[in-house]
Amino acid sequence: MSQRMTPPFRADHVGSLLRPPRLLAAREAKSRGALDAAGLRAVEDDCIREVVKLQEDLGYRGVTDGEFRRTWWHLDFVRQFTNITVVPPSVKARFRTEKGEIELLAPGLRVDGRLARPKPIMAADFQFLKAATRATGKVTIPSPSVVHFRGGRGAIDAEAYPDIEDFYADLARVYSEEVAELGRIGCTYLQLDEVNLAYLCDPALQEQVRGIGEDPKTLPRTYAKLINGAIASRPAEMTVCMHLCRGNFKSGWVAEGGYDPVAEVLFNEIDVTGYFLEYDSPRAGGFAPLRFVPKGKIVVLGLVTSKSGTLEKKDAVKRRIDEAAKFAPLEQFALSPQCGFASTEEGNVLAEEEQWAKLRMINELADEVWGK
Questions:
Q1: Domains: count for the chain
Q2: 200 vs 208: CA distance, rounded Å
């Protein structure tokens, strides 16, 4: 067994990292007019350089910018497409934590006309990351399914898209334009953050989907086709992975349920190389769905929680890896946290030193399990 020299790496992480206090302060200053956009970007640049070096020093082959330029994991990206509008919250999302529930008034999305991509979205951010690291820079973007899932057909302009298939085709096209541009400027590691396939594993959320007129049994295949269209433009040297999670806000989660309802479509009908799968708690179910993973694909086991600062015991994580290896060969696995540490700028409830201790342990475990 050996380390992987191409993504996803044996020790990897999902993408977002806790925002440093001075970055949060700069963002707050920008919001009240005490700092301009250039000033905020300069602070972001400095913080990203520092966080990249920390990842490199821990031995990570794939590094991110921590998503330091974002407020939300998805809104900052999708709102840049023409005719996607961020709308005020209309429904309270209930995130569960170990200490109780958190209510989040999350903004929604609406499609007001035909979709277009007026300019590159992630190009400048990736080029900065690429210049700042000797490692492989990973770009994370929301899966295109986020534009549809929360509002369904009712959130998509019927005059612009009388046929819903035309909407899906346009959405795949504008995404593919972005993916092609990232490939052109040298991105070799792209991750789609896909929460909705994991949400469709929860019976309660399946009912919510039915409530907006959608069929939870057919959506996985619909989204698989959409995702494949969105990444069809990637160059041969670009690895594309997916991350699935059940919600991540201030250490809370939304959904529960194993991957069984979507496993066959997820692993065999979506044309990606790797899957970052949440597996840090019983809410993610067992490892049996991994029997559907075909040869050549990699599952990055999210066995280390990003929702708590408590450091896992190495032996306990190794036992879980052994359990997973009953359903697919060990060489098809890697290790990561179950989610990012800060899907929104508020971040999860743990300290920065606890975050880094978890990432350090993951890298050590990867060496112990798969060899240096």
A1: 1
A2: 10
